[in-house]
Amino acid sequence: MVVSILGCGWLGLPLAQFLKKEVSGIAVKGSTTSKSKLPLLKQAGITSYLIRLPDDLHDSDSASFWESDILILNIPPSAGTDPTPDSYPQLISDILKRAAEGGISKIIFTSSTSVYSSTGGLTTEEHAKPGTAARPSGEAVLKAENVIMESGLEYVILRLGGLYGYNRHPIKYLSGRKGLRDPLKPVNLIHQDDCIRVIAEVLGKEIKNEIFNVVSDGHPPRGEFYTSAARHFELPPPEFKDTPAIDYRVVSNKKLKKELNFSFTYPNPMDHTP
User: Which residue ranges does the record assign to the NAD(P)-binding domain (predicted)?
Assistant: First the structure.
């Protein structure tokens, strides 16, 4: 099996390294927009490519990147240069056409739980509806999902919660801030290691044309979570103001755990793992 990872950034690079080291029978190709990352990929035995979107989609130097069995599509809505709401779905459409030209038959898309409304209680994969996402970027991601589902290629869409782990933790962005709202709002997070393991599980199973929420088991209130995290990392805690409790979103991982028989290494974000 040959796997190409489009976007070897904070998640894609360790994913490529994990697949190369831990999964037998897989050849891994990886793309980056940064020349400085090319040596890191090469050192891990990953065939590396410099691909800047959308300009390099048909660049001859990266033609062999698209000659794979599976494409892991790991680029955010900010990819490309056009900030209009439809630019991301259009970019995804262009990527899929290029992938099909190279012989790729299956897409694994790292989507986001931002496709859901910020309210609604327990939220399953069926709850994503056009016009209900909490942010415009979520609407763009949902449109991109639809482009993938209508492409004719096999797909697995992974709706990732907020990513954390190692050098990335959301407390670093909120430390010391005052007047934050919604201390009772549950967090919907996923550790980098668990996210990588989910993708590896999908690659190892005959799963196609499915959507999974990828979030950890624990959903502590954000006020409690960030205060505890600040204490753990010895940072100034954020200050929350009391706001009425509303019907907050809690993203369900039931389908993922059942169909992949998946157990999380880091089930509770309150454990403040590395």
Answer: 11-176
